[in-house]
Specification:
This protein is 29% helix and 26% strand. The protein has 4 helices and 14 strands. The strands form 3 sheets. Strands 2, 3, 4, 6, 8, 9, 10, 12 and 14 form a 9-stranded antiparallel β-sheet that branches. A hairpin with a 2-residue loop joins β2 and β3 (34-45). It is rod-shaped and about 160 Å long.
Length: 249
């Protein structure tokens, strides 16, 4: 049967239909023709050069209101607080709120949710900005739109409700990720180390020049004084032979 609602859902339609499609649902989260979703109980942020052991970094559990950061140049997986359902006669589209995107947070995951999907949504994001992005659990930063299909589709997702961040996603991006910010910091550290070493060598050379300037004249003077003393010394008189007295043999 063909549907007459093959268009994006209005705010009024969202307020009516999402009460059975999003859990927990709040009418206050209806934002024009979209619904706002919040950061949920799990997060994964790729380790950077400041991490002591990148191999131990894994999914973190967040308490309500607990904050975390996404450093510049790092990826993260963010889970929604809400469990979302998309009916067979609709398709959903997802994004990040503009004020968060203006900080440099980019959504690099899929931009739609298939008909029949049920579960929490996992957003793959990247911090393309110059500073860390601070977020917390319960913060409303995601948007979802619903659009009606021209009919009830049999080509839909089926199965159990998806919950939590899939560990296979973590395996694909685990390990230290060298960001431009991290590489820039390393280059600055190396440059500072080389600069300090050069200054140290210059100080040592200056010290040796001063010591040489003091010791060399003294050494030359001592050599000259020694030569002068040696050349000015009188030779000792040669011993004279004594003739035997007359009558002595």
């Amino acid at each position: 049967m063909t549907s007459q609602n093959a268009s994006f859902w209005s705010g009024e339609t969202l307020a009516d239909r999402l009460q059975t499609l999003i859990e927990p649902f709040s009418r206050d989260r209806v934002d024009c023709a979209a619904y706002t979703l919040a950061v949920g109980p799990e997060v994964y942020v790729t380790p950077n050069d400041q991490t002591s052991d990148p191999t131990t970094v894994t999914v973190r559990k967040l308490d309500q209101g607990q904050a975390f950061t996404i450093p510049p140049g790092q990826f993260a997986f963010l889970l929604t607080e809400e469990v979302v359902a998309v009916p067979p006669d609709a398709l959903a589209f997802i994004s990040i709120r503009a004020k968060i995107k203006f900080r440099g947070l980019v959504n690099v995951s899929g931009f739609h949710v298939d008909p029949g999907y049920r579960g929490q949504l996992t957003f793959a994001v990247y911090n393309a900005g110059p500073v860390p992005i601070h977020l917390k659990r319960g913060q409303p930063i995601f948007l979802i739109w619903y659009a009606g299909l021209d009919r009830h589709s049999e080509f839909k997702k089926a199965g159990a409700i998806h919950k939590g961040i899939d560990t296979e996603l973590i395996t694909a991006v685990s390990g230290e990720l060298q960001s431009f910010a991290g590489l820039s910091k390393r280059l600055k550290d190396v440059d500072k180390t080389l600069g300090d070493r050069i200054h140290s060598l210059e100080r040592e050379q200056t010290y040796y020049r001063i010591v040489a300037a003091i010791i060399l004249p003294l050494f030359v003077g001592w050599i000259g004084f020694s030569l002068k003393d040696a050349l000015g010394a009188k030779p000792a008189p040669a011993p004279t032979s004594i003739a035997p007295a007359p009558g002595q043999h």
